[in-house]
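INTERNAL AUDIT FORM
Audit reference: QA-55
Scope: verify that the stored structure record matches its stored sequence.
Auditor: D.O.
Record contents follow.
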Amino acid sequence: MPERRTIVLALVHYYLPGFKAGGPVRSISNLVERLGSEFDLRIITADRDFRDDTPYKDVVIDGWNRIGNAQVYYLSAGVGALRSLLRLISDTPRVAPIVIAQDLPPLPDEGAVSNGMPEREANERLRLVFLARISPSKNLYLALRILTQVRSAVDLSVYGPIDDKAYWRTCQRLITELPANVSVRYEGVVAHSAVANILKSYDLLFLPTRSENYGHVIIESMLAGTPVLIADTTPWRDLEKAGVGWDLPLENEVQFAKKIDEAARLIREGAMPSRTKVQSYARDRVLDPTILSANRHLFLQAATSD
């Protein structure tokens, strides 16, 4: 008879196949991928994605679904939701609250490994990508303001759901005032399954976010071999020393602009950080066994506590 696994019940606002809520969805899905074979992981979540009006079409609503290494219950909206939630919790033996340890990064995709970008022409434009929710916390407006100070020819592609429409209108006004050497395109919302392929087609991730508990898109960019230019407001620090990008103080816009000009020069000279080096740096951190061990320990500790 197979050994009974410890049951872990997670209540989260949004989960797969949703992706618009960003980091929290990826935190839980990465945990499921890494620890789902060791624990009986059960997730209760909303029946629709962030800010969507309609439920998912390809899952059973108000019933359990096998999604990867977890059982997922998609709770319908309405007056009966709370009653259903209380019933599901009561049906789960010995529920104990726990706090997740350090975010688990995604396992590296062997297919994403790249030996480098094709040789660039001397007059080719620097390709930047901003991939995050359009909201004040992600700081797109600051990114655009920094680009007004850049001298090189730069193309910025912006991906992500518009979380704050008034903020987006402010950004749009600034886009119309950018100098001729800078172009910006809004590319819309992108499914998480497409993120790696998108990131590896750019020269640099540009994300001067106000703060990040983890910053999933940052590690995903590096796993795709794309260096990053970010603020020093995330756990990802000393990137220039590691040769994989830059993390700078938010208040120093001039320094950000200079690094973008430097990146444009390095691209022209073929001296940008090696994509394989960037990937190697990211893989070392993704496969760090201490992070997985910390999450495993929390689950086991909660299961055995009085």
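Auditor finding: record pair retrieved intact. Residues 7-102+288-304 form one domain.
Action required: none
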